[in-house]
Hints:
The structure holds 2 protein chains of 2 kinds. Chain A is of the alpha+beta class. Chain A is 36% helix and 15% strand. The longest helix of chain A has 22 residues. Chain A is globular and about 50 Å long. Chain B contains 11 helices and 14 strands. The longest helix of chain B has 21 residues.
Amino acid sequence: MSKKKHITLTVNGKQEEFLAEPRELLIYTLRERLNITGPHIGCETSHCGACTVTIDGKSVKSCTMFAVQAEGSEITTIEGLGGPDDLHPLQEAFKEHHGLQCGYCTPGMITRATKLLEEIPNPTEEEIRFGMAGNICRCTGYQNIVKSIQAAATEMNAAKEAAE
Amino acid sequence: MIPADFEYYRPKDLAGVLSILEEHGDDARVMAGGHSLIPMMKLRMADVPHLIDLQDVGGMADIDVGTESISIGAMVTQHDIIDNAALSAAAPILAEAALQIADPQVRYMGTVGGNVANGDPGNDMPGLMQCLDATFTLVGADGERSIPAREFYEAAYMTAREDDEVMTGVTLPLPKGGYAYQKQKRKIGDYATAAAAVMIVKEGDTCVSASVAMTNLSDTPIYSEAAGAALVGTSVDDAALKAAVTAMLGDIDPSEDNRGPVAFKNHVAGVILRRTIELAWSRA
């Protein structure tokens, strides 16, 4: 067996240190080692996006990265965006606009959408559909997902303006 | 899906990479973004006892737009290409192609070096680089060498790169004229059923040079010199388009797979090439 690696990650602002085999995929580290179960395992073949997390400012499918590759990085999952008492505007908008049905794809959708809105704060419908193309929903919910992201963008832009 | 056990290395420089490659031969593989290799390791179709992560090796993530040529480091991601305004001004075909690769998440990780070095006939950058007459830089124990993209691909996953060499970057002459990269795929994230890269130079109403390459229609990318030649000296009218398509069909050799039978692939290749030429010509 290969030598275990000492890995340090910052997940949702909290530093985590552990020993892991190099073949441990990041999604298993998050879910099974750190008990951060927001990122889901959908297809496990880099297609569906349910496992999407933000790593050093990039949206990444955590089923296609070894934890050891992420050594030293900062990771944000859905848990780091907001909780039941302080929902992120995207979480609030998905709730308000029925942006989910079964909810399985939602953590990945919302985590990806935070990065999309960072890059394009006021996206068109087409830009949303293109920017969310790495996340699959099987409840046929795309229309409301687009609506939710548009609503969150409006909300976030208004809040930003109010703050300035 | 858990890959077989492996040793992991993250060297800080190329010398470190080369010494691991030398020690372990073809038991070692380098990894850039990992979005081709890791899926294969998970399926246990790739056995990599020694995995060398290139992310800490410096000097391979730069984009340099010069007056005569462009160099792109092997670790430059598809996202970097899309995001680089100077590059998009000088060679917009690169971002046009990159935007048709995989999906946003994969484009943050997927690199130019990985895309061209892997030798997967489904990858988009190899055909694009052949169209642009790019040159690949390889570094091995004996130093550095360059090889034209048009001479690099031998068969599926078989390239002119030796096991102990690392691809460090791509250099291409500053593209001139109209451009287009168009791709027919079954869904977002899919490899091409057929894709075409076209560069075309127009003087007056006449095409004076044209370069055509096709993706995923043989076990290598196909640079179709004959298709380009069929356009030169014409006004890219219907007869010239038909001649270029006929010439291209003589150069490709698609095989039947889950994207369709051979006759369908040839049909789609023709449709896509015609569209790509028309778009490139309209921009020339």
